[in-house]
Give the backbone structure.
Amino acid sequence: MRTRTVDFGAVRDDLGDRCFICELVAGSPDFAHHVVYEDEHAVAFLNRYPALYGYVLVAPRQHREHVTSDFTRDEYLGLQRVVHCVGEAIRRVVPTERLYILSLGSRQGNRHVHWHLAPLPPGLPFEQQQLAALDTNVCLDLSDAELAELAQKLREAIKASAAEPYAIDDEPRLEEA
């Protein structure tokens, strides 16, 4: 797969004081991303600078900055349902050894709360896993057509699973003792 190097300092400088998630939600063409899911409370979209194939961000539509204290319990759990649904879609579409889910951001970077859903591909050496898989300025160089195709597959997987009460897969589960 093709890669490219990203100067994240320049990206932050170009962004200035604007919130890229708020700009995306507002429909700004400069901040368009391939959306894989949206409802009245949340939006999920492909990462513009993916370190891993299938990397998606999930965020509340409203600007919130604190991962727990800015939400009621029901709002937070609603967002986690979206994270789970999108995560299961990623696992169905992209070969995934482990799905990393974490919330990153800072007052100096991007304040808008969001969750990173990053699928670790099978067979990656241990030294390239976990935070090492994400802490890089090298990202996949995917064409707009490739991103659009991936986004469509994820939307279809999300839609297909919407009728299921729980995600169904062939992964073994721990048996209750």
In short: The CA atoms of residues 33 and 143 lie 13 Å apart. Residues 3-162 form a domain with the HIT family, subunit A fold (CATH 3.30.428.10). The longest helix spans residues 73-93. The chain has one domain: 3-162.
